[in-house]
Queue: 3 jobs
Job 1
Amino acid sequence: MVTDTDGYVHIIEYLTEHLSLFENTTDQVTNGKTVMAAIENELSEQIINVCSQNAALSFNQRNTVIREVDSIVYDLQEILSGVVNNPVTDEQDMFIKEFALLIKNLFDTEIHTHLLV
């Protein structure tokens, strides 16, 4: 659905261009979440939004969305493997929120282009 699109490749490239945000962090950590917890929280929130905003999705289509999100989380774990258990900084948290919105937009585009035609 989305993980095999050019849009997904561009989003992953965007992440890799900003990997320096996750290296040698000295920023103040204030929320106690790990990088992985922040990713999971933000992606979950955005995918709930995708599904609730697209009530016409069938059960199977929703399951496809969930499987895609699992695949995305796996990719992120691989890319950020050295830092997923580190506390997330405020700057990282803001980037993760932006990244999750990009993923949501990609799902919205794919759903409206291919599933709800």
Job 2
Amino acid sequence: MIKNLIIRYKFFIISLITVIIITVIDKEIGVKTFRIAASSFKQMASVLPPIMILLGLMDVWIPRESMMKYMGDNSGILGIGLAILIGSIAAGPMYAAFPFIPVLLRKGVKFSNIIVFMNAWCVTKITTVMFEVSALGYEFTLVRFLVDLPGIIIMGALVKWLMPKNELEELYSKAEEM
């Protein structure tokens, strides 16, 4: 059991040991590293609970059949549009989007639409766009959108096309087991 924990958290353990060694060598850098890590943890702890509540509600309230109809394999442009819309109105940092993936997989959402959703979360968030317009101007924002929107859609199709079918099936079955 301990061996499994060590294997599972090896990256964290290696990082912790590295920071401890750095702290021994240079206390100021080590303390600053721990402060940054604590700040990041606090931010994550404040963002994830509301996301988990929304996920639970989405899992219970939205029937699988509806998600499959509007964002599933036969959803076409409507599924892409919904994925972009949901990703664009989302709030929070990118890591807050990752818990949505298993729920979307369980609901039968087409994998390319999941990738589109994730990319839209990163690139087209309304809060970011409003800041961008005020800081860089609407011309820049419009040009970026004209480049990014097709890129988001192409990325979704490309990832689905490159992903082996057996790995996609395994991904969907693992999500069902969760």
Job 3
Amino acid sequence: MENESYWQKTVKLPNYPKIEADCNYDIVIIGGGMSGITLAYRLNDSNFKVALIESDKLASKTTGHTTAKISYLHDVLYEDICSAYDKSKAKEYLDSNYEALQEIKNIIEINQIDCDFKENLAYIEAKDSENSKKIINQIKLFKSWGFDVVENITNDGYVSMGLYHQAIFHPLKYLKGILEKCDKIDIYENSLVTKKVIKDNEFYLEVNKKKVRAKKIVWMTRYPPNLQKGYFLRILQEKEHVIYRDGKRQKDSILNLTTNFSIRPVNENAVIEINKNFTRDQWHWYGQDSVPLRKIPYIGKINKNEFIAYGYNKWGMTLSHVASKLIYELLINNDSKFAALYDPHYGHYLHFYKDIIKLVKNNYHGMIKNRILVSKEVKLNCNQGKVVRYHGHLIAIYKDKQERVFYFSPYCPHLKCIIEFNDKDQIWHCPCHGSIFDCHGHLISGPATKQLKKYEKHES
């Protein structure tokens, strides 16, 4: 499957070179999505020598596959944060994302960026008892903070909450305008970081077999690579299909928490949906994001000179600006008013036991189940892949439409979970931590930093 979104089909960002020589920088930003590019924008006029490094093309992963809703109505996260921590943390989370939305508007206005920005009304809704109760509690929270809430509560259990002055835009048009202002930043594409070494308080990154030396590094990727030990225990990966529907009118943005159905307008005669019920012939793509088990994203310092930002829980348009501003302030002033809220080193995890159960199931699936329940049948249809037990060993096999057969190691290079094949998207997927490989074993997205090992043809 060609995983190209509406945004990617309608706007092409500038091309940038890959790293082909050793180089030195004060700050290296790793990850060329919304977070990394907006941090580069903030640092453009600083006194630092800065590089932005992307493993593929800029904004080609999570940012390129987003639904691009700019909103601080992040489902029922405020109720969750209030229940797990306290009301003050929930208000801080609101303040940071409210400020981010206003800042996006200001950036667009100051730089005269034509990115289809439009304010609209955003709703969350539910009909199941658990989510309905959370929405009702969250309505009370927002009213206590002085917000004008559009609410609807019916006798049959349907509940909805809406907020005015939320927004939609074209994220790649926005980033194209931002990139024009990054004229003092060295930007690299097709430059995957595969190794990190710390020596004499400096970082040495291996990129395209070259050495990149940096005084400070900032990881702004959807999922920290295996260079960040232990972070896979703090997040889930969730993958969703996004559908473009022409000829359908929609004014507001809506998220149904019961069904996970989501819809937002694109223009006067088209919408983008997250919907499980779609056909192969419809224009669709998949997106993947990381869900923090503590509910609050991990943004800030992980040691004196290393920073991180991830776990946006599908609300990356505002949170990417929260992250880039927070880390910019830490780099410049060594302080930020939201640093304590997003600090990566704390969390109440047991409160969100359902997500922990999902994490355990995902790892069980990849570490144990996929090793035991393995077919011995090697026969495949065209455009099909599977893991089989062959001569006592596990092997991943794929047959293309020309009936050519390809053989790979079934072990994800990240932490050796057993991969599985997704027929709909024509990809190999790691159920443990979300690494994705194309049908021929090439790495699409991490945390893995290597492609699947290829084998020579086996005798049948």
